[in-house]
Design brief:
Blueprint: H1 11-27, H2 31-49, E1 61-63, E2 71-73, H3 75-81, H4 83-87, H5 91-122
Antiparallel strand pairs: 1-2
Helix pairs in contact: 1-2, 1-5, 2-5
Length: 128
């Protein structure tokens, strides 16, 4: 992007869903649920950006918690969004923030489960 070039901003849409997203993430109890929450809110955000994107496209967003961005869009979904939106807007940064929040929550839940399992292994049989 060149200096002074106009940027499309979708922060307004992000702010509309942010509190509900954080609340749903904090209420997840299992690591695998974090990806589902991310996908649900990501498709909702993308449908606000482009009404052609519907819940039917949810399988074209991939939650990849170990990757740098935390997510990946299918080529078909990128085509629907359009190059201008992907290159000249903040949508990719917003999706990255959302995915990394979900990845962090997933990591926390995994660590908590490991700690719980370790504690259970340390219990003496007569305490059960």
């Amino acid at each position: 992007m060149k200096k002074g070039e106009k940027v499309l901003s979708f922060v307004k849409f992000e702010k509309e869903i942010e509190s509900a997203y954080r609340e749903r993430l904090s209420n997840t109890k299992r690591p695998e649920e974090t990806g589902d929450v991310f996908l649900e809110f990501a498709i909702g955000l993308l449908s606000k950006v482009n009404p052609q994107i519907t819940r039917n496209h949810i399988d074209q967003i991939y939650f990849e918690p170990e990757s740098e961005n935390g997510y990946r869009l299918s080529p078909n979904l990128e085509k629907i969004l359009g190059e201008e939106v992907l290159k000249k807007s903040d949508i990719t940064a917003i999706l990255k923030r959302m995915a990394l929040n979900a990845a962090h929550r997933r990591k926390t839940l995994i660590a908590d489960n490991e700690r719980t399992n370790l504690f259970r292994m340390q219990e003496r049989p007569d305490q059960r």
